[in-house]
Amino acid sequence: MSEQTNRLSGGLIDTSKSLQFTFDGRSFTGAQGDTLASALLANGIRLMGRSFKYHRPRGLISAGSEEPNALMEIGTGAYREPNTRATVVELFDGLTANSQNAWPSLKFDALGVNDLASNFLTAGFYYKTFMWPRAFWEKLYEPVIRRSAGLGSLSMQADPDSYDKGFLHCDLLIIGAGPAGLMAALTAGRAGAKVILADEDFLFGGRLNAEVEELDGQSSADWAARAVAELRSLPNVRLMPRSTVYGAFDHGIFGAVERVTDHLPATAKAGLPRQTLWRITARQSLLCAGATERMIAFANNDRPGVMLAGAMRAYANRWATTAGKRVAVFTNNDDGHRTARDLVAKGVQVVAVIDPRENVRAIAEYPLFKGAQVVGAKGRLGLKSISTRLSDGSLKSFECEALGVSGGWNPNVSLTCHQRGRPTWHDDIAAFVPGGTLPVGMSVAGAANGDMTTHSALQSGAEGAVAALLALGISATAPELPRADDTSINLQPFWYVAEGKSRKWIDFQNDVTVKDVKLAHQEGFRSVEHLKRYTTLGMATDQGKNSNLGGLAVMAEMTGQAISQTGTTMFRPPYTPVAMGALAGRSVGKEFKPTRLTPSHHWAERQGAVFVEVGQWMRAQWFPQAGETHWRQSVDREVLAVRKSVGVCDVSTLGKVDVQGPDAAEFLNLIYANGFAKLAVGKTRYGLMLREDGIAMDDGTAARLAEDHFVVTTTTAKAGQVYRQMEFVRQCLRPDLDVQLISTTDAWAQYAVAGPTSRLLLQKIVDPEFDISNGGFPFMSCAEITVCGGLRARLFRISFSGELAYEIAVPTRYGEAMIEALMAAGEEFGAVPYGTEALSVLRIEKGHPAGNELNGQTSPAMLGMGRMVSTKKDSIGAVLTRREVLSDPDGLRLVGFEALDAEKPLCAGSHLFAKDAIETAAQDQGWLTSAAYSPHMGKPIALGFLKRGDQRLGEVIKAANPLEGSTVQVRVVSPHFVDPEGGRLRV
Amino acid sequence: MLINHPLLGPRDAQEFTYLGDASLLNRPDGMAGGAAQAFHDYLYLRDNPTGEHRELWYHEQGDRSWLIVTRNVSTHEILKVELASDVALSQGAKP
């Protein structure tokens, strides 16, 4: 157990609550209110990670979500999450953290050898070096590079956490709860508006919690706590700590991730999601996201212990810790001096404040070096000393463990760019402020808008809220502002120290140096977007929050332009990384999509059926019986039973659309390619539906139950698409027709009863007053009937198998009873239930097209249905079916194929070639669409499209399956393997 | 995005299926002379304007209305939402 050697007094932590945690296997303690980062600093840990490319030892540089260095793996086993910024991890008892991208250890990382080769590994190195030979990229270069350059590693296990999603609505969304956000929330909350105040931190107050400052005579942290207490008492204000608004989307919609239980020990998480993804619809929004401090580049400015001055001050004031006993500050503005002042007040030895400005004075007791620059840093695994070029030209070294650097502050404009905003340059603060068109309803206040003092932040927050509410017609008055600091930080732009040969780091996360930017310029990658992609400046988890401007400044200097002319790259969502699990929410595993069960599902389960997913549906695939060890045995048995006697199959998944109204027939005439106007009541007809471009969309039947009432069926897969097209035709093309549609797919349980004894079976079910004899109810009849003593039902004499067959439909709630009744009635005939596999074999044997043939590429002519497309009426798609390419007599035609060698299976997807042709794309003559072993034929058969297939019956060709390296010979035959004359249907 | 449905008020765009240019309402007569060319133009020749665009959205996860949404495709601002059937009727839907 290590001591908290660098713990100071005070702070907003509760040291009476000691929390234990481990880092790289070592045990430490921290306090309630610590982050992982502050607790590590308190324990004297400065080395926290290895850099992405060169594996340089790194410590943290920030105290917020912009952290580029201190990325860690949190948790163990399947819970492990890589690339977590230690600066935003709230400490809890039992937390386990590990460093990443280092082997065998953080202190000795073998790939640190990359750093020695750095002269070669500059920007563009990979692009230039690994160009050739091309084949090596995928197999050799990329895997090696990926292993050496990288961030954390995944657990490779399923995410065991649960996530949730939610929706919120408000008048005003305030993003960020610093001085501007709190003041805005007070203003809007008191006015009665529905307010959401969200902040990524677990403690509201922003910089008010990190400064030694007075607001109306009380400490800024106390003022923030009181403001939060008042807001909490307002029922119209929702406070959302630990909630990152990560994206601004269209029409005032925002995405936010709330970390619900990440900060709790495992024992306290029960029943709660890990994170919740909120979709917030805000009538107005006020961005109060504050500002992010930026570094000054100098030689070896990445030594662990070199950090941003504002972060150093926040660690001292809020978290009562320091990165070292002796510290120095390097600043180009007055804000850095506050760090020195506050650390001195906390009893930390400030060995030097180095300021390149001449006209500056100390604000506390510390040695100040004006007109000076830090030109180097020593201490590979932790800062030991800095060397400084003083104003008189001499070189002076200071021993220190930490250095706070301030190059000024960048307004957090990220969310303003998520739509069409273009930040504009602001000379006064040498930074970009929000500009261009902001997301609808958004305004910006506080430091995010360039109002950098506490007073101006409070003021703009209050005024921003008043203006936002005014736009909604809600009147609010700005409260009297507390007295607060309003002094400028007198920044003098200073981006990097010219002196020194060692690398000067701009982008810590991507290991981009001043030299890399200069190289990009030299090689012509001068636009900011090119610069970004060539050097990777500003990419990855931190999105360049610290580094972008430093890179732009160097580029601006090289091109001799002002930064305002150089421009800036855009920010895109997410503001900070979002876990994939949060985006998925509950839509994982079985809940990824809805599961639909057929009416006979539970009955089929009891029969031991094997199920298959068909879109959202679960369908019985086959019904194994005792002694059957291979699925083919079950399927062959089911097929033969249907051909010999009778089988029953649940076909409820087929789409059913009820079409009613006086103009129903005219409507069907338009949506089907073949004619329907003259279909008699009590009759069913096969119908082919086309897309307007002439490609077959779907097929099915339409049954006319009454003059003004049809039932249209669709395939299972296309039920949604067909219904959409039918509504399109009804509403957009023919709103003058008096016709109504409704999907009744889920309302009816429908069973195919197929086989030579199907009528005998059904006669036991159908109530005796209904004549279903061949004469009374011939092929393609339909009727509304009753069954089982009065239950309403629909009967259709249609066949997919080629046998005498019916489909019978009852209201869904009777579905299970119906299958039981059918099977009981069929027992004397040896009736079998059959699944989708037998259904498919039966229809292939009969030559009926299905999804494999109606694949969105096939025309009626290809399907052999060219003549079905009526030329006597207008229908969707009819005109364009006559296009040359779709009606070419020498084009592809649907035909059947049988294997010459009954032992060699055919494989759907195989391509067809003339018997002696070489198997190249140029010789390709078509493909097999559906293949099966036909128990009826005793050999493998297939359907497929073949060039001029209808003219080549009897020809022997070959079907090649290059994926498996097999080629088999097949004979071209009629697609109707069973009963080509259709006699069996009509008996 | 939010679509202000003429019957149901503002609805999340996720409830809708997008189709495309509202000119699809102007389907040519398949029985008229020159139908092949007319259908070619109807189906394949679309304007791709920046700024305002009239387009078809289908409220598939809702009341199954087809809507014509006038949207600025640069800003995503929605300027007008109409029932497609109203528009088609007012244009004098043709057989």
Automatic annotation (TrEMBL), chain A:
Gene3D superfamilies: 2Fe-2S iron-sulphur cluster binding domain, sarcosine oxidase, alpha subunit, N-terminal domain, BFD-like [2Fe-2S]-binding domain, FAD/NAD(P)-binding domain, Probable tRNA modification gtpase trme, domain 1. Residues 601-873 form the GCVT N-terminal domain. InterPro entries: 2Fe-2S-bd_N (IPR042204), BFD-like_2Fe2S-bd_dom_sf (IPR041854), FAD/NAD-bd_sf (IPR036188), GcvT/YgfZ/DmdA (IPR028896), GcvT/YgfZ_C (IPR029043), GcvT_C (IPR013977), GCVT_N (IPR006222), Sarcosine_oxidase_asu (IPR006277). SUPFAM superfamilies: Aminomethyltransferase beta-barrel domain, FAD/NAD(P)-binding domain, Folate-binding domain. Residues 501-586 form the SoxA A3 domain. Residues 893-979 form the Aminomethyltransferase C-terminal domain. Transmembrane segments: none annotated. GO terms for biological process: tetrahydrofolate metabolic process. One of its GO terms (molecular function) is sarcosine oxidase activity. It comes from the Bacteria. Keywords: Oxidoreductase. Belongs to the GcvT family. PANTHER family: AMINOMETHYLTRANSFERASE, AMINOMETHYLTRANSFERASE, MITOCHONDRIAL. This is Sarcosine oxidase subunit alpha. It comes from Actibacterium pelagium. The lineage of its organism: Bacteria, Pseudomonadati, Pseudomonadota, Alphaproteobacteria, Rhodobacterales.
UniProtKB/TrEMBL annotation, chain B:
Gene3D superfamilies: Folate-binding superfamily (3.30.2270.10). InterPro entries: SoxD, SoxD_sf. One of its GO terms (biological process) is tetrahydrofolate metabolic process. GO terms for molecular function: sarcosine oxidase activity. This is Sarcosine oxidase subunit delta. It comes from Actibacterium pelagium.
